[in-house]
Amino acid sequence: MNQPSRANPAQARALLTVAFGPSAVALVIIAAIVLVQLVIANSDMTGTFGAVASMWLGTHLVPISIGGRVIEVLPLLPTAAMVWGVARTVASALAPTTSWYVIRWVIASALAGPLLMTAISLAIIHDASTVLTQLQSPNALRAFGCVLGVHAVGAVIGVVTRVGRRIALVLQLPSWPMDAARGAVAGVLALFGLSGAVTAGSLVVHWATMDQLYSVTNDFVGQLSLTLLAILYAPNVILGSCALAVGSSAHVGTATFSAFAVFGGQLPTVPILAAVPTPPLGRPGSR
Length: 287
What we know:
By secondary structure, the chain is mainly alpha-helical. It is built from 8 helices and 6 strands. The chain crosses the membrane at residues 12-40, 60-84, 105-125, 140-163, 184-208, 220-245, 257-276. This is Putative membrane protein.
């Protein structure tokens, strides 16, 4: 029986890129953001590595614990960017005629690299928490599970993009599942796009409320930070609009929104949340 040939240097580099490329790019961007914020705040660099590691885990929807408070609802835009990056990297490492042996190695690399970086990040956070008592280590099992889930989704998308038809032929699947999947994806994207248009229109209607939310800071850097935060959380708000469009409900802070009722509560002071309906008896600035 013929044994698979050893990977050549080009294949080894491709596997390393698949394993660490998307995560390394994310780390560079996160490190730049953290350093800029520390310089602007005129703060020392104590705990910089812990902050970078926490934010990297946060891009995989791992809850972040700071000062005894847990940030459960994290922005979806970095997570979506990570999934897209993994899918693109995996797809670029494959060809329609790539052997199943190489495909298995590419998938294994796409999952093993991030898991190794998760272990390193947890160790860094644990070490930083001895200096910064406000920073707590996240649950290790949940951290590994979230990172594995995000990168598995990206890897599956990348593989299906390249060799989806081959997989269907091997499994002897009819053609309609692939056609149905494409139709479903198109429908979801259309719903997301229309919900985004509704969200943008609601922001225009509630422009005065958004201006009040920006008034919590008067300097340019603070308003720029609020704008970036609003952009990061925009997919979360649009998904809430999608939920309302299909008859479900959305929860923001302690407030609940549905197509038929709005129950007031405290909302975070994020400009993008000016798009949500005003609860009864709610104050515009603290909705």
